[in-house]
Amino acid sequence: MSATPSVPVDTPLLTRPRAVIVGASSGIGAALAHKLAQEGYLVALLARNQDNLESIAQQINHTAGETQAFVYPHDVTDYDLIPSLFQTILRDLKKIDALVYVSGAQFPVGISEFEFEKDRNMLEVNLLGAVAWLGQAAVLFERMGVGQIVGISSVAADRGRVGNPAYNSSKAGLSTYLEALRNRLTRHGVNVLTVKPGFVDTKLFRENAKASFGVISPEKAANAIWRAMRKRKQQIYTPGWWRWMMLVIRHVPSIIFRRLSF
Amino acid sequence: MTLNGDAVIPLPTDRLARLENFGHSLSGPAYLYRPTEIEQIEELFEIARRHGFSIGLRGAGRSYGDAALNNGGVVLDLQRMHRILDWNPQTGIIKVDPGVTIEQLWMHTLEDGWWSPVMPGTMAPTLGGCLASNVHGKNNWKAGPFGEYVLEFSALLPNGEHVVCSPTKNTELFFGLIGCMGILGVFTSITLQMKRIYSGNLDVFAWAEPNLKHILDAVDSGKEDNDYIVGWVDCTPRGSRIGRGQLHTANYLAPGDDPSPLQSLRSESQILPDTILGLVPKAIVWRFMRPAMNNMGVWAGNTAKYLANRTIGHKKRYLQSLVAFNFLLDYVPNWERAYGSGGLIQYQSFLPIATAYDAYNEMLKLSKRRGLPSYLGVVKRHRPDKFLLSHAVDGFSLALDIKVSKRKRPGLRKLIRELNKIVLQAGGRFYFAKDSTLTAQEVSEYLGEETVNNFKALKARCDPHNLLQTDLFRRCFTSSNSEQ
Ligand SMILES: Cc1cc2nc3c(=O)[nH]c(=O)nc-3n(C[C@H](O)[C@H](O)[C@H](O)COP(=O)(O)OP(=O)(O)OC[C@H]3O[C@@H](n4cnc5c(N)ncnc54)[C@H](O)[C@@H]3O)c2cc1C
Ligand SMILES: NC(=O)c1ccc[n+]([C@@H]2O[C@H](COP(=O)([O-])OP(=O)(O)OC[C@H]3O[C@@H](n4cnc5c(N)ncnc54)[C@H](OP(=O)(O)O)[C@@H]3O)[C@@H](O)[C@H]2O)c1
Q1: Which stretches of B338-419 are assigned E, i.e. beta strand?
Q2: Crossing angle between the packed helical segments A82-93 and A129-144, to the nearest 10 degrees
Q3: B91 to each of B86, B88, B153, B193, how far by Cα in Å?
Q4: Helix %, strand %, coil % for chain B, to 5?
Q5: Which residue of A11, A168, A198, B38 shows the fewest CB atoms closer than 10 Å?
């Protein structure tokens, strides 16, 4: 029997919300971990890089003066372990109010490159891992009649472009999956939020960056995500102007789009 | 802090369920099992031990707080173990499964002229739950708690042992398990001594008193001549009228007093009607109460009730069925839902005679001042007992039903901390079946460190792997849960 952490017991007069963040070791996920902790959440932090997770948890717990963050090293492509890990987290935190799926992989690919290993990894991390994790949360939240699912998709979901077909498809798949979940779960009192960031200054962005306009900090993105969670929104672009940008881009006819090189 | 997601065999997701307390003020997820056989419980203990899960026990879920919740873990609902194992109408001794309810119990024995000597205020609870809480009735000063009528029980301990306990056999476990809130072991069968009665009716007397002092005095002085006493207290008026209310005393009829006992003892004579005033279906009444469940509405209702009790209902003597008198609240099913989405908490404190009036008076006034008055107060008279985690004192209890709403939560939290302080300073105690707000520190203050240590030692012996847990147990007996 592994030691279970002792978390404060909810009372009718004081309850602590709990969030699971998958992909919390850097970038947007790490910033969101800090934000949710600041807002009073107990947070379960997941990703592969245990050292990073530990140091984020340490900062959170140090600032809070109590144990508010809990670390679970995990590779989302270990699909078989997900049901048991989910159960362990539920056992440890006692309740889960929100699950945020942030994990994402994006590799730079050349304009004529088709390398299956890269493509597959992006699809696995961005889509299959999400399906595996969100399914767990969906069952729990449906039974509880309350809860919030957040998926970090991307503006890249809105069109298939020359740059990175597998990344585009993974995010498009994720967006569609989230939409379907929303249609399944709203009637059960569960909110599903799709987040589509534009350019956020993270490791993933820097490794792939071609553009350098309109880049926001991960903290700014995290604040926007939190605001949307609080208002129980269904979809946001961050920064918000991407909504209009993508509205235009989505309507560019294929005959033109085929000739573009972004 | 690192926790490795050790690859446990997941509990079947199908078992995930949302469980709530009676007050609808707390809910959470648990893996729910409803066993019918003791072997299934043993098996679950084994699985829990292997995979590091805890198990919380649950009867009918009538506890007001978190006694029957085990969020994130396994919950064992024992309601399907509900056989009556043996009944002897000559001696009044009955042996039952733990999931048998109070309703099932009286339905089975009443026609033979036997009634449970101790009855809680509703007939929904299971006997396992009643024993785990060691419930009291409106006759506690005279009859003592439920546990005093248990001739014997068997229990399965998490360490695998099956034990049989009675007041003379395995006495430490007998006085420990009864009242231990399902934390030391699972009651698997219970043998009870029922009380002989000679009518299905009680001789009831009702009258009104103008303030708290009079209510307490009346409850105290009535204890010589009555079998039951209860005071219904109005906590909403201002000033010296606070704590005014109505009193009910009730007495069993002596042999011969009831001309046709066989009639009154039949279940049909006892069953509560389906409609109120012959018109309104009971099942929907709570919906009409809901809009009035605010400070103004309750004040108006209580005042009207008080005036009626002071006039037409004053000094009335009548016969009332045992069921109607004991389970008055069951008249309005789901009444607790009238409190709205935040639910309610019940704040019940037990105070010695000497300090009770001053402390209760201060508590009622403080609550009123804060705009958080209780919508129903109930006063009872008690006496101490020998059970390890006893809640009783030689004195009174006052149970306050308080509405919880999102807006008033912070104020209520502050108020409760202050009320706790008043009770502790006045040498008072609390009751786990009702509580949902005590901290571990407050619990060890009223139980005393020695009692807490004895309890923990028993826990270590019965349950070395700490398998039996509830939210209440973690809240009240884990020292890290100090300030809430
Ligand atoms: C309207 C109302 C009026 C009430 N009036 C009174 C009253 O007048 N006097 C009074 O004393 N109480 C009163 N109560 C409280 C109630 O009697 C207790 O909470 C009782 O324990 C409820 O029994 P249950 O079967 O619902 O148990 P639950 O609430 O499901 O569980 C109660 C406790 O028992 C444990 N438990 C359940 N089954 C077993 C078992 N087989 N073995 C070991 N542990 C077990 C659980 O773990 C839990 O800690 C009242 C409650 C309500 C809702
Ligand atoms: N930055 C942007 O401009 C931008 C724009 C749109 C969308 N997004 C999306 O935002 C999300 C967060 O990305 P980011 O920008 O914050 O990049 P990041 O800093 O690189 O973060 C990626 C996160 O995903 C985790 N991850 C990657 N592979 C994983 C695996 N196999 N198992 C578990 N976790 C894994 C990483 O943790 P480990 O490496 O420790 O496992 C890390 O925590 C991604 O989904 C990304 O697609 C980003």
Answers
A1: 344-352, 376-382, 395-403
A2: 40
A3: 12, 6, 18, 8
A4: 35, 25, 40
A5: B38
Residue found under tokens 């967006």: A175
B182 CA: nearest ligand 1 atom: 44
| Three-state secondary structure call for residue B82 | coil
| Alpha carbons B55 and B465: distance in angstroms, whole number | 11
pTM of this structure? 0.95
| C-alpha span between A89 and A218 (Å, rounded) | 26
This complex has an ipTM of: 0.94
Distance CA A38, CA A15 (A): 15
Total Cβ atoms within 10 A of residue B86: 11
Q: Rounded to an integer, what distance in angstroms lies between the CA atom of residue B284 and that of residue B334?
A: 9
Contact A110, B31 (CB under 8 A): no
Q: Chunk chain B into consecutive blocks of 10 residues (it has 484) and report each block's average pLDDT, rounded to whole numbers.
A: 46 94 97 97 94 96 98 98 98 98 98 98 97 98 98 98 98 98 98 98 96 97 96 93 95 96 92 74 83 87 85 89 92 89 96 98 96 95 98 97 94 98 98 97 97 98 98 90 50
A5 contacts B437? CB cut-off 8 A: no
Chain A CA closest to residue B438 = A11
B7 and chain A: CB distance < 8 Å anywhere? Answer: yes
Shortest Cα distance from B440 to chain A (angstroms)?
Answer: 11
Residue with tokens 């690919």: A109
Structure tokens at A122: 């992006």
